[in-house]
Design a protein that fits this description.
Blueprint: E1 10-11, H1 13-22, E2 26-31, E3 37-42, E4 45-47, E5 50-55, H2 60-67, E6 70-82, E7 87-101, H3 105-119, H4 127-134, E8 139-153
Antiparallel strand pairs: 1-8, 2-3, 2-6, 4-5, 5-8, 6-7, 7-8
Length: 156
């Protein structure tokens, strides 16, 4: 586990959870069979000590997390470019944990519902039918959080 160099920018777990809750996407890092890195954007939703995201039922990401379940997810919250002082105000969260495909149908429905609450809140009346239509062909992955760190550069 690496340590944060800029301790002055470190934020607590509640801050990191808030970033995870509001971020629109995160970048998931996995490892290929030849030990090279592979990163891909995902749409995460935080539920307690796990993060769910939807995915295809097959592909490079699934192959990687099946053979090497250790993953790292980075999410960025609010950013503000400040060109006049050559910097950027930002907030971010980094999660390390174990990924696994969710096989249980009830848990898949739960995760899809939570994803819709986050990403399609204004269309919740359509969600049950959409879940039933897509359940069989939609993969759900779960990351169990082992460590969670937050970081921010706050510029007044």
């Amino acid at each position: 586990m690496s340590h944060m160099r800029r301790k002055d920018r470190e934020q607590g777990e509640e801050f990191a959870r808030a970033v995870l809750k509001k971020c629109e996407y995160g970048v998931l890092a996995t490892v290929n069979d030849d030990a090279t890195p592979y990163c891909i954007p995902i749409s995460p939703v935080l539920c307690g000590n796990v993060i769910y995201f939807h995915c295809a039922l097959e592909g490079q990401k699934i192959d990687n997390l099946t053979s090497r379940p250790q993953v790292c997810l980075t999410c960025v919250g609010d950013t503000r470019l400040l060109p006049q002082v050559f910097t950027t105000a930002y907030e971010s969260a980094v999660v390390c944990g174990q990924a696994e495909m969710v096989e249980d149908e009830a848990e898949k429905r739960f995760a899809l519902n939570k994803l819709c609450e986050k990403y399609a809140a204004e269309n919740m009346e359509q969600v049950p039918a959409a879940i039933e239509r897509s359940l069989a062909r939609t993969g759900i992955c779960k990351i169990t959080i082992a460590s969670l760190t937050g970081k921010a550069k706050i510029v007044p």
